[in-house]
Every structure is written in C-alpha cells, then in structure tokens.
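User: We ran a pulldown and think these components assemble together. Before we commit to crystallization trials, I'd like a predicted model of the whole complex to look at. Sequences follow.
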Amino acid sequence: MVVRAAVAGASGYAGGEVLRLLVGHPEVEIGAVTGNSNAGQLLGALQPHLLPLAGRVLEPTTAEVLAGHDVVFLALPHGQSAAVAAQLGDEALIVDMGADFRLADAADWEKFYGSPHAGTWPYGLPELPGARAALAGAKRIAVPGCYPTAVSLALFPAYAAGLVEPEAVITAASGTSGAGKAAKPHLLGSEVMGSMSPYGVGGGHRHTPEMIQNLSAAAGRRVSVSFTPTLAPMPRGILATCSAKAGPGVTAAELRAAYEKAYADEPFVHLLPEGQWPATAAVHGSNAVQIQIAYDESTHRLIAISAIDNLTKGTAGGAVQSMNIALGLPESTGLSTIGVAP
Amino acid sequence: MVVRAAVAGASGYAGGEVLRLLVGHPEVEIGAVTGNSNAGQLLGALQPHLLPLAGRVLEPTTAEVLAGHDVVFLALPHGQSAAVAAQLGDEALIVDMGADFRLADAADWEKFYGSPHAGTWPYGLPELPGARAALAGAKRIAVPGCYPTAVSLALFPAYAAGLVEPEAVITAASGTSGAGKAAKPHLLGSEVMGSMSPYGVGGGHRHTPEMIQNLSAAAGRRVSVSFTPTLAPMPRGILATCSAKAGPGVTAAELRAAYEKAYADEPFVHLLPEGQWPATAAVHGSNAVQIQIAYDESTHRLIAISAIDNLTKGTAGGAVQSMNIALGLPESTGLSTIGVAP
Amino acid sequence: MVVRAAVAGASGYAGGEVLRLLVGHPEVEIGAVTGNSNAGQLLGALQPHLLPLAGRVLEPTTAEVLAGHDVVFLALPHGQSAAVAAQLGDEALIVDMGADFRLADAADWEKFYGSPHAGTWPYGLPELPGARAALAGAKRIAVPGCYPTAVSLALFPAYAAGLVEPEAVITAASGTSGAGKAAKPHLLGSEVMGSMSPYGVGGGHRHTPEMIQNLSAAAGRRVSVSFTPTLAPMPRGILATCSAKAGPGVTAAELRAAYEKAYADEPFVHLLPEGQWPATAAVHGSNAVQIQIAYDESTHRLIAISAIDNLTKGTAGGAVQSMNIALGLPESTGLSTIGVAP
Amino acid sequence: MVVRAAVAGASGYAGGEVLRLLVGHPEVEIGAVTGNSNAGQLLGALQPHLLPLAGRVLEPTTAEVLAGHDVVFLALPHGQSAAVAAQLGDEALIVDMGADFRLADAADWEKFYGSPHAGTWPYGLPELPGARAALAGAKRIAVPGCYPTAVSLALFPAYAAGLVEPEAVITAASGTSGAGKAAKPHLLGSEVMGSMSPYGVGGGHRHTPEMIQNLSAAAGRRVSVSFTPTLAPMPRGILATCSAKAGPGVTAAELRAAYEKAYADEPFVHLLPEGQWPATAAVHGSNAVQIQIAYDESTHRLIAISAIDNLTKGTAGGAVQSMNIALGLPESTGLSTIGVAP
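Assistant: Here's a predicted model for the assembly, 1368 residues in total across the polymer chains.
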C-alpha cells in the first residue's frame, strides 16, 4: 500500500513534526508540502532537521496543489481548515491538526473561538472509549489539542470507572513549541530560559471545553475543569498534573485497577510501575504517554500525572496514529515509543 | 551598627545565597564561614560567584568557630541544627534555614521527618499575620521552606478573609537548586534540561504540613492541602499554582480586594496589575514576590499564582529579612526587589 | 552628589540592564525613561523585573524629554545616537551603548556598518592602557561591544607585553540576550534551547574591527583577528576562547606574569587561581570578569579564556563603570562583583 | 538476516543510545543487556525512555552473559574493554565505544591515558579515506570519540586536498551527556544551566591525539591541534568550530570544491548550502552531520564548522553505521538523518 500524503502548513512546528514522522512511515510517500508566506522557499532552510526533504520547495496552500493525494494533513491557523476541506472533496482523508472540528458544542466553539462553528469530525484520540470505531474508515479526523490529549489520558480511566467526583483541577506545564513558531517577544529564548510562567488562567484557555467534552463523555455526566497552563523552559513536552476528589469509599487499589484495565492493551500509553514518575524527557520525540497515579489519603484525592511530547503524541503523532486507523493500517505503523533522551 | 555574622554550611546553595546577600548588607560583617566535608578549602573554589570572599577558607562547623558572632545562619542538613544551637547559648541570634524548628506540631514533625521534634521557633515569614511581632527581638528564627513561602503568600489573604473553602489544591514548579548541591544522578544537567517531572506526589512532601500550618492559622480552621511539586529545567525559581473553591456568593471583586489589602504595604510582595502574570525570571536573585489571582466563574474557584526565587525570598532572602526585623533594622536592608532578567 | 540620569531605549535589554544597575547606584536618581514604539506604556509591563520602577511611564525619545539630565544613557539601534547627541548639547555626559562612536577608523565603520562614520568618542573599557585618563572628565563615552570587552580583556595583557604573535583566533559563545529583544524566529526559545549555532562566520561580525583596534593598540602593531561568534542556549553570558601563537622562546611563566601584572589592581577583572576555569554562571548579573590562561606546549600557543555577563560588564555595567570615572566617582560605585549563581 | 546484539554498559548514556538505535534496527535482535553496579535492576527504571525494553533486567557484564551474540557493543569505562574482548573469542563482532583501541601510537595512549596500550582496532569513522575498506568484514571496531568525529569531518577534506597549513585551532561546545551519567557536582543541572565553561584547556584533553592522528593521516604529514572543549547548557550536541590557515594562493572556491567532492556521496554528512550554518538542534537524535565552511580573506583562514549529536553520530550511531559496514548491511540501515527539532 502506498499512501500519498500532502502537508499544508509545512513550515510550522506541527507541519514539521508530521513530516518528520511521515518520512519514516513505511507506507507513506510524501507529496505536496505547502505554506503561504513561505511558498517558494526550500524546506531545508525552514526545517533544517528534515534532511531528506531539504531540497523540497514549499508550494502555496491551494486546492489545486493539495488535490490528488490520499491523505491531506492540515497544519493551519484556526479557522482556515473548513474552507480548504470544502474544496478537496470526499476522496481524500483529511486530518486536521487545528481546532476547527474538535468541539461538538457550537456554543462552546463560539464562546472560546469567537467565530461560527464549522462542524464536528471524528475525534482522533484512539484511546478514548469508542474512538477507534469512529475513526475506522473515516474520511475526516479532528486531531485533539495537545493539552486535552495529556489531560484526557490522565483522567478518563477514573471518570469512566465512576471513581472520582466531577470536578477536576489541572495544572500543566508545556514546552514552548506549543506556542508555535510565530516570533513573539515573550517567546524569545532570552525570556523563556530560566522562567516558568502561567497564561490563560481562570478558565480562558481554549483547550478547556475540549477537556470537559472528553471527561464528561467518559463520566457520563458533566465534569467541570479548572485548567491552568504554564510555559516551561524546554522546547517540547507536556507534564499534566491532574487532580480530582475520589468518590465516597473509593480506595487506592480501585483507582489503580481502573488504570491498569484501561491501558493494559494500549500500545502507546504506559502506566508506570509504582514508585516511578513520568518525565517529559522520556517521551521526547516519541508517541508514548507515561502515566502514574497517586491516592492522597489525607485529602482523599486522586493525583494523575501524564507526560507526552506535545508535538508527537500531542499533535502529529496522534494524527498519524489516527490516520493509520482510518486507513486500516496497523495502528503503530511509523510511530515509535522510544524517546530521545537524555 | 555592625552585625557580625557567621554562616554554617557555606558550601551549599543556601549558604552561598546567604553569603551573597550578606556581602551587600551595609550593617553586616561576615565572620566565620564553615563546612564539614569541605573544611579547609577556599570558598573561591566552592562558590566562584562570590568573588569578594574568594580567599576565605572554610572552617569546620563547631561551637568554637561559631562562637562570638551576633548572628549565626545555619544552612545544615535537617536534624543538625538543634545540637549546634544548644551549644551556642542565648547571646547570638540563630537563624535556621533548615526545617528543624518550623513545625509546631510534634506529631507532624515525626510523621514527615521520622525523628524526635526539636521544638518550635518564631517563624520567619513576616508577611503572615502576627509574624513581625513574634520576630521583633527574637533570638531564634525558623526560616520557612521555599514551597511554603510561595504557597502561603499566594493563598493566605483569601483564607484570612474567609473567602475560600478549606481545601487547597496546589502544583508548584521548582528550579533544581531547591534539591541542593549533593550530586545525584536524577539532578544531572543531562537529566533535567528539557524535562519536567513530579516528585513527592500524593501528600508525601515534607513541606505539606508547613503549608497546612500556615493556611490553617490564617483561616482559623483546619485547611487541607493537596500539594504536588515538580522539578523544572531552570536553576532557580518557584511558580506555585494554587487553587481553592470560593465560598458561597464570594465575588471576584472581594477576592481582589482581600489581596490588595493584604499586600498594600508589603515591601516585597507585589500584586501584579490585572492582566499581568508572574514569571520566575522577573524575581531571579531578588527578594520580591509576584502574585496574581483569577476567579474562574465556571468552577467558582480562586486561582492564586506566586513566583519567587527559591534561594532568595524562599530561603536566604527571607532569612535576612527576618534577621533585620529581629535586630531592629529596617526590614529591607540589604535586600533587593529587582530581578536579574532576562 | 546627586546625578540625574536618563535612559533612552529603556524597553530593550541594554536599557533594562542599565536601569537595574542605576536603581542600586547610591549617587544616581533616575529621570526620564524613554522608548519609541513603546512610549506611553508602563515600564512594569515591559521590564517586570524592575519592580521599583514598575509605575514609570515610557516617554518618547526626544531632545526635550532627555534635556536637563546630568547623564544620558543611549540604548538605541545603531546609527541613531549621533542625531540625539547633537541635540543634547555639551552639558550632559552622554554614554552611548550602541556602536556609533567606537571605531576610530572611518573606513572600518563604513565597511562593517554601511553608513557614514559619526565620529569617535572616548572608549569605555577602563582596563585598557590609557583608558582611564581619557575617560576622566569626559562628556562623551562610547561603551564597547560585548564581544570586544570579553576578547580584549582576555588578550590585551599578552599583546601589551609583546608575548604573542599578531594573529588571534577567537571563538566566543554568547547568551541570546546579546541578540536583543526584537522578536525573530531564530531567537525563539523553541529554536535556541538545546542548540549551539554559529553566525557571522568568516570575518563578517561587526565587532571584529573593534577587537582589532584594541589589540593592535595594545601590541603597538597591526593584529589580525579571526572571530567566530556562536549562540548558546542561555539568556546571558559570554565565554570567549582566545588563542595566539606565543612568541619565540616565550614561557608559560612569562605569560602568567603578564596577566598577574595587568590585573593585580583591577577591581573587576579576576585572574583565577591556576586550575580553575571561568564559567559564565559565576558572573551572572555581575560586573566581574573571570580570566584564566593556559600555555599549550605542544602547539606553543596561548589560550586565554574570559567569562563576562554580556549585559553587565559587556554593556550596562561597563557603561556605569565608565560613567563613574567620567564623573569622578569611585569606579566601583553601584557595581557588584558577585554573580547570581547557581 | 538476524543479528543478535548484546550491549555491555547498558545503564549509561552510550549504552542507552545504542539500545535506542538497535530497537529500531530491522536486522537486529537485542540479546543481553548488562551493567555492573546496576545488575539486577529493570532497564525501565534506568532508561525510562526505552519503553519497549522496560521489562528487561540488567545482567552482570561477564563473558558468559555476553557469549553467543553476533555483535557485542561495549560501553565501558576506559581500560575495561580489552579484558572483556579477550574473553569473547573471535566469533563475535566487538564494537568498542570506549577509547581503548582508537590510537595507533602506544606512546600517545600512555601519555594521555596513563596505562599500557591495549592495541589498535579498525577505526569506525567510515567517511575517512580508506576507512570503509578496513571496516568491511572486520571483527573488531574502535568507535571514534565524539569530538574527533566532529572535528575530523569538519577538517579532513581540506587536509586531504592539501589546502590548509598543518596547524588547526579548534574550539568545540558539547552537551553535558558527553561527560557521562556519573553524578558529579559540576554536572548538576543547577550548575550547567545558564553556564558555558571550558575544561581540559591547553592540550590536555584525551581526544587531542585522536584528532591529530586523523588529520595527519589525511594530510600525509604531521598536523598539530590546539583543542579547547567547552561544556554547553544542553543535554546533547557538539558544535565544533575549526580553523586553519589556508595554503598560499588557495581560494575560497577551491576550499568549497574540496568539501563538495568529499561529501557528494556521503549518506550522513551534509554540506549545507552557502549562507546556512549548522545547529546542533537540527541533528538532535540523528546520525547526520551538518557542515559549513567560510574563507576569511582578511586572515586567509578556513573556518569549518560541524554539528553532530554527540551520542548518535558521535558515539552510538557511528557504532551502528560501522557495524552495518562490517556485517555487509546497507550502511544506513536503522539510522536516521532526521533530527528531533525544535
């Protein structure tokens, strides 16, 4: 099987990462790579780590250029995917790494993004209950946000098993690549090295409704989420520290059993042995997820912590994993669970 | 006034930081600097940033060496301060930067430290209600832990004003100097750069009872604390993200008013203008504290975030601030509120 | 004595650093702080580490605003200082932290900067032979570039003593703040963390003629310089590795003696004890310079290595040091030799 | 073809990296993984990024354990490989990632390592003239040092073409993993973050004779090397800045032609397009080498700069590349030229 794939938005971090993975994917042949402001430039100048593609020239992001591929990955700014998708017809599988088609609730979308809701596509987090069935054979995939990936995997087993109360309190630290490649003063190396700082505090981060959607679906009732993202002095990685009150009488053993059951057969999610804690370095460049939980008896709370690479499992790796499912390929094809450490 | 000060444990990070501050303190003359395994070595080899003290030789940590000073700073491993203090008599002011005398509850001490309780000294966090009165003229000071400093300052105004429920959920990110200078594999630069990881999860961190003590005192009732510390890839700084449910009917305006009132006259604590968030880089090497709060109406929670330098306000700066109060000096003498940034 | 100082270009890194130092300078009162694109904004939003100045509002950089000060620090883009200086008259001391007045040779200026030469001002590197005499009472000071500061101090004693051949080969690593605060993609934290890269290779860096000027003056003959700057993943600091062939028959002892003599009485330059090597962390935020040399007998070369903080001794600290000399103040006033480490 | 490979010293950085690569090598099956102080522990606890091997238990490093493999990788402290190799017999291919068998000159070995010379094995830098022929079918391979890999590839084309003088001046910056995983205070994250520092200055670094050996062989005459290594605040990567005087009349075009010719068909060495410079981030985790050169006409010097990943091309990737040649596999099998960036 040869899958011909195009990548729109190839000069950014998400686009670069999906290309990094696709070069190593044994069933994929890379077709068009496109940009807008960078069209006409060599990929080698924009993404110097992608040596095998250094001689490729970025084409403009148009329907003509993207036509004729089996899969089209969209790594575009929010709000642009719908128009591109509409022009591409139904033949190609379209994998959107932006936010446009993640939320089922139009009101949520409009509140957090301030534009009309474009629709809802099958959600590309295969580990969630029912997700694989929705992805198999799909022609449209909405890749989850990086924070919702880390948070949903850390908490959904407890919610699905009915073991925790419907209020989650979450703090996550993200590497700077999560903020993209557009040059902004507060993202300069001089500013971020040696510094931790929060942003989007108080319920305003756009990934919050996506977490609520996932956890509520798992719980079968409305879950509220208090989410605080922080920027950490590292290029990649998310460490999500998630907490929820355990239900009456719930024990540490029940909590652990729920996670063991949820992840027993998952190829990418690794519940660590007791006593070992996740570290983002261990999943650097990998599609793996490290998870560990603790039950704090003094507060009767579950603390569930996950580490992912925000660009791999949190974006492009999750996209390829879902593509594999949609195309009927083995789910792990072209994806590694080995991090580049130290 | 000339205050003659000795520093015991001068080869570590806390000892080095207190020396850095004391060199610039206009009323202090530095007397003995001591170490144990490093006795006989030049300070210039162990703390090369302390250029004016480069020629000082470390003496052994004995009562003889420490005698005859007006102030003795102890930067010793937990459990060693009581014996040294007992030998020094009542003349000198002893400022303990270790944990030995922070906790009032002997059972808490024994549970978290596994040794007999040595006692309780006046607690060196001047911003807490009543603290300055207890420190004035004191001959013994227990310097708070770095995390309890950051967390207590972030949350006590809300508790003191009775505006939040008695369960706090806290995640804090600390620079690696908080783990000390003893060489351990997981603290190697190769391991920590590019990585975020948690430790002491689930209620086990020794600073937890100290936070509970401070917040309960402010609230006038028992506050429970779920505390998760994480290690961040930076040498200094703590960012504490603290959350508690607002009380019934409490508004954002009431919360902000409580913080404005608490910190209106504090020389080191700076409640940021609305819209601006703390960053550890801004307080690098400074005794300042940056605080910002948000009220999340969707979860009815207060999010209070503080940034400190763990070695300055979190350890040695707090120690000097409390020494100033004990000696009747202006509280800010020798302390800066300017960070070294970028 | 009260010196009233203005800072033009206060929103950038050089401007922020000179303000950091001036706040702590006992003889200085800070007057106008100006910017252009940022005029009207609060300094607290632009330089959040300068807590005591947080409420200051940036004024526009005009002659009216800058008039009436004893000292005016210019932290402006290259080419703008001459026009501002011309408008300020002769009363005020003008300290230019840009490049405009550093080079004596108009042809060098035009070759490297591509604009007409504005002139030459007394050069603010007091440690160079004759520099203090030229600075005393001066009304105009050209602050050296950061790399020329590090390189000139590493090599001039050997050249002044006639001990090395007139070809220097230099590689220097700089923290990212040397590249300024303007947001450019290659300076993003995501790009610089974990990466070392060179730039301006092959003789093209604008600081090269300034190094040649200083070393040639010390040697009394034309010195050639091969200079390669590299960008290091840290916010501050320069480590300059400088090498030159020792003259015929020159010994390690003669080399060391030359450095000991040159720096015996210098308050800021510290020739380290043999066996200890400079580290940029040791001079973080300090005006100190660490220097060490080695004689490689197998190649008969001198290796001289210096560490400075590019923003302090390399820019704003050097500026304040020269201001002190010009005004007749003790040279070290307001300047520290203690680094903020770890 | 199934190649059964053992790794001795699997708990360190070199051992971990060779395992990372071997897991993805399509012709290799991983046999014994051994350690000494860590024998009996789970690999998952020591190398948490190697998820597929997490359940493996470290065995002791003995001849019995290492017997019966097609290839044995030795990642042992210097001086231990000879004894292990002697016990293993001639059947297996032994790939030594230590220094023991790199140097041809026994006097050099004894001078720099202070122990008797163990011998000389075929040298695993395939890009050097004649190296592939020596490696084909070899049963013993000495993997080059990380610095000699970076430096030799940066300079040998100029020496082989007779275009530069026989004195090279080199400064290299290395990530901290080059210093190994043994916990030492100066390698703590608190010490290395934010700091650049040199070590082994003045001809003393053990990799110097290896560079001289390679460059002299290329030049056909004795080349002298002045080498200064520096420690950079990043976990991986080497940036080598190498300089040599161009020969009389040599032009920039001749230099470039020599590099283009040398690397035209090399799968891993990439001479960048003019105007683009190497960055270690671009080769993070990759076996690729980025090289760029400049001719500085004012000093008539060649500046040749290379970037490698010290653990991949500089150690374990180079080892696998040479193994492939020795076994008759395609040279690039299991090796990537794509870096993990940003």
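The longest strand of chain C covers residues 164-174. That may be worth checking against your pulldown data before setting up trials.

User: Thanks, that helps.
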